[in-house]
Specification:
Elements: E1 2-3, E2 6-7, H1 12-34, H2 41-52, H3 54-67, H4 81-106
Antiparallel strand pairs: 1-2
């Protein structure tokens, strides 16, 4: 990839394909989970695929930072009030998911 006479070794087509394939697998696992097929394994798969999706997103952000003359990402390195609100909402969401799984395992 080249922008402003800067090169960055990144294969966006491969990363996009990975993102789409993993999303499809996650959606299939989620649908199977809702039908109690292979329970609780499909629940675990549908939860773990979120973390697998991070890889192409991190690579995309690294490419954006490098091509924007900010490889360290320092122009976007501080937190705002909105960031803290979203972080708190995310922590609450994940906490509820963990409580839900713990409840399912106990039953």
């Amino acid at each position: 990839m080249k922008l402003n006479n800067k090169d960055y070794a990144w294969k966006p087509n491969i990363e996009a394909t990975l993102y789409v394939v993993v999303t499809i697998i996650g959606n299939i696992a989620n649908n199977m989970s809702q039908s109690n097929v292979l329970f609780p394994y499909t629940d675990i798969i549908s939860l773990l695929y979120i973390f697998i999706l991070l890889s192409p997103l991190v690579k995309a952000q690294q490419a954006i930072n490098t091509l924007s003359d900010d490889p360290a990402g320092s122009s976007n390195s501080t937190y705002t009030v909105a960031n803290f609100i979203w972080i708190a909402l995310g922590v609450i969401w994940w906490g509820l998911i963990i409580i839900g799984f713990a409840t399912l395992i106990q039953t």
